[in-house]
Amino acid sequence: MEIIVNGGNRLEGVVEVNSSKNAILPILAATLLSNGHIEINKVPKIRDVKIISDLINDLGVEVKHEQNKLVYNVSDIKNYPSYELVRQMRASFLVMGPILAKKGKVKISLPGGCAIGTRPIDLHLKGFHALGAKIDLSHGDVTAEASNLIGSHIYLDFPSVGATENIMMAAALAKGSTYIENAALEPEVVDLANFINAMGGKISGAGTNVVKIDGVNELKPVNYTPIPDRIEAGTYMIAAAATGGNVLINNVIPEHMKAITAKLVESGAIVEEESNAIRVARTESIKPIYIKTLPYPGFPTDMQAQFMAYLSCALGSSVITESVFENRFMHLQELLRMGAEIKAEGRTAIIKGVKKLTGANVKATDLRAGAALVVAGLTAEGETIVGNSIHVDRGYENFVEKLNKLGADIIKK
Ligand code: EPU
């Protein structure tokens, strides 16, 4: 699959953002903690949601995707996750905490590394161990077992999003109180806590670096709408700024966008916040800036690639340091094919702005790299063919259609 862009069109108009992929994935995993009929609203039809739904269905749960609502009928968890499904997406590992809490035992294939780094799961396992689970690693599988999980104090060496979420889910049904220290502060972590609390859980402090989870005996089914996707919103903000356009992005929580907004304004774009929308325009040339990716509320690593594409045409040299993932510059080589002038040393890239990018054949290596190459293609002279565009479908619903509506000359083949 490929996306073909003919660059040069300014983007103008209104675009609507979906619910957050990275909020929905743990929320869908957390449905396993309850029993009964759960409805999750405004769920985009994207590949990662399909993979986790298939996986949950494979565990013996009835799953229906009705228009943009996901309906789950949770009863017993009959199976363990199959390797076939787990290997398709790292976030599959998020079902480990809920299955362990509900069934007392879980066996799952270890997620391998992926394009953006080795991404170990030691912090998740450290958390389960602290809650009293016996952990066994053998032949590429991990088994965790505990007849009862017991509340505990867990200090995370790094504020990992996935570890905070997985431990929070396991602790939701544990006996007593669990404290996660140096927890991740991401809005998606807060949304998961809100979802578990809506089911009757007792979580406080989500969004601060100490999360307290008081275990409860059972969680009840609910109807829930996850938060908007701040990375989808950020991608349209960049596309608007990169093309010198003027776009209103709807269904946004501006508070979640602070780091992205600050960097766009620093680069000379105009950003206007409304209560649940953001308008981005740019009339001046792009000023070079410095970016370092950090856990929330720092600058999100999931926007690093898109900013690199944008800054490729800045008036001067920008610097980007990737501090969250060890290997998240694969888009750099592809941007070079389009005439960008970028040099990387370790985790730092220096982007010397050029006047214009030129269309080329490039390949998406992961989701955000794919989005970045499309942004680059929107500004480039001539035709850009983004191969492997299936990566983009993991996280953006109707990406090509939405950009088309904003005036881009773009198709999917
Ligand atoms: N890490 C460890 N040990 C662990 C867990 C993480 O060393 O046990 C390291 C990772 O290797 C990485 C860093 O900690 O270097 C951050 O990983 P984190 O656990 O915070 O990330 P994640 O939960 O695997 C989520 C998002 C990612 C996003 C990161 C950082 C989901 C499903 N995924 O991943 O989203 O980049 O947080 O914000 O929520 C994307 O959407 O494109 C994407 C990759």
UniProtKB/TrEMBL annotation:
Domain Enolpyruvate transferase: 5-403
GO BP field: cell division; cell wall organization; peptidoglycan biosynthetic process; regulation of cell shape; UDP-N-acetylgalactosamine biosynthetic process
Cytoplasm keyword on record: yes
Reaction it catalyzes: phosphoenolpyruvate + UDP-N-acetyl-alpha-D-glucosamine = UDP-N-acetyl-3-O-(1-carboxyvinyl)-alpha-D-glucosamine + phosphate
Location of 2-(S-cysteinyl)pyruvic acid O-phosphothioketal modifications: 114
Keyword list, A-Z: Cell cycle, Cell division, Cell shape, Cell wall biogenesis/degradation, Cytoplasm, Peptidoglycan synthesis, Pyruvate, Transferase
Recorded GO MF terms: UDP-N-acetylglucosamine 1-carboxyvinyltransferase activity
One Gene Ontology term, aspect cellular component: cytoplasm
Active site: residue positions: 114
Cross-referenced InterPro entries: Enolpyruvate_Tfrase_dom, Enolpyruvate_Tfrase_sf, MurA_subfamily, RNA3'P_cycl/enolpyr_Trfase_a/b, UDP_GlcNAc_COvinyl_MurA
Protein residues bound to phosphoenolpyruvate: 21-22
Protein's name according to its UniProt entry: UDP-N-acetylglucosamine 1-carboxyvinyltransferase
Species per Swiss-Prot/TrEMBL record: Candidatus Syntrophocurvum alkaliphilum
